[in-house]
Specification:
By secondary structure, this protein is an all-alpha fold. The protein has a single domain (2-93, 100-320), classed as Farnesyl Diphosphate Synthase, CATH 1.10.600.10. The protein has 16 helices and two strands. A two-stranded antiparallel sheet has the order 1-2. Strand 1 (93-94) and strand 2 form a beta hairpin.
């Protein structure tokens, strides 16, 4: 994590200030709620989203109170969606810790998620941060649409490449795009700069998701996590779509049948992973990912060179070219 600490340097003091604002926003007079939110704080991740917000603000203008509220709004709404996702997925683990629903059951988890959503909205409304709230609310709407579109397509497994990109743009990229857009907006940037930062975040988010797709077909011993998870969940990822697009009609029917009806058979999943590798699906996905990385860097070429801009460029590489 030394690389990440280096990236955080230009906004290290601001990240500490954000932490204070975020803790305050989570505070409640209800002891049970305070206990749950304290657990959330203890198990939070690498602060990637606040980092995108703060660095985007710093290259677009100056970090101010509105920027801390923007980062807090993102983190509150995102945390709420994760808590709700764990309930929907019946997941007992999040980032190596027990999920909220595993410790306090579904009813409390759903109510905590609702509380975090309302806190985020009230934080914006009480400070007249209407532009920030609109940007983030649009992202939450898109994330929900992306999830529902993926569920719908998983039933028939009829995902074409354009639909795939629509799903990941909504489901994954919209959140990173909103981080960068609210960062710029909070610093007083004009609509052109906000749009450029939103485009930057979208490109980073799409590249990030393609990288995640590629992981599912790599050697689990090298990346340190199980592979074939997307196949088991009947998700149509870019390497798999490439294999389907380059298979005969009969072979395509066999692949779809395997994903639909034999996705829990480890041996058959292993054979399909091998097919994807041999088809050139990984290389194709990597080439598409590289296009979006280059597009993200191009979006940043508009801004003057600075320590924060260098850090943001490094954050792109850290986010996408990670091993796990």
């Amino acid at each position: 994590m030394k690389q990440l600490e280096q990236i955080k340097k230009p906004v290290a003091a601001e990240l500490e200030n954000f932490d204070v604002v975020f803790r305050e926003a989570m505070r409640s007079r209800i002891p049970l709620l305070d206990k749950v939110t304290a657990y959330i704080m203890k198990t939070k991740g690498k602060q990637m989203r606040p980092l995108f917000v703060l660095l985007s603000a710093k290259i677009s203008g100056d970090i101010n109170d509105s920027t801390y509220r923007a980062a807090t709004l993102i983190e509150l709404l995102h945390t709420a969606t994760l808590v709700h996702d764990d309930v929907v997925d019946d997941s007992n683990e999040r980032r190596g810790f027990f999920s909220i629903n595993a410790l306090w059951k579904n009813k409390i988890a759903v109510l905590v998620g609702d509380y975090l959503l309302s806190q985020g909205m009230l934080l914006s409304l009480n400070n007249n941060d209407f532009q920030l709230l609109k940007i983030v609310s649009d992202a939450v709407k898109e994330m929900s649409e992306g999830e529902l579109l993926q569920i719908e397509k998983a039933r028939r497994l009829d995902v074409k490449e354009d639909i795939y990109f629509d799903i990941i743009q909504k489901k994954t990229a919209s959140l990173i795009a909103s981080c960068c857009a609210v960062g710029a907006a909070s610093a007083g940037a004009d609509e052109d700069v906000i749009g450029r930062m939103k485009s930057f975040g979208t490109n980073v988010g799409i590249a990030f998701q393609i990288k995640d797709d590629i992981f599912d077909f790599e050697d689990s011993r090298q990346i340190g996590k199980p592979t074939g998870i997307d196949i088991k969940e009947r998700k149509m990822t870019l390497p798999l779509i490439y294999l389907l697009n380059n298979s005969s009609w009969i072979e395509k029917r066999k692949i779809i049948n395997l994903v639909k009806n034999h996705n829990n058979n480890p041996q058959k999943v292993k054979i399909l992973i091998q097919q994807v590798r041999q088809s050139g699906g990984i290389e194709y996905a990597e080439s598409q990912m590289e296009k979006y990385i280059q597009a993200a860097h191009h979006d940043l070429s508009y801004f003057p060179e600075s320590e924060s801009l260098v850090a943001l460029k490094q954050l792109v590489d850290f986010t996408i070219k990670r091993r796990i």
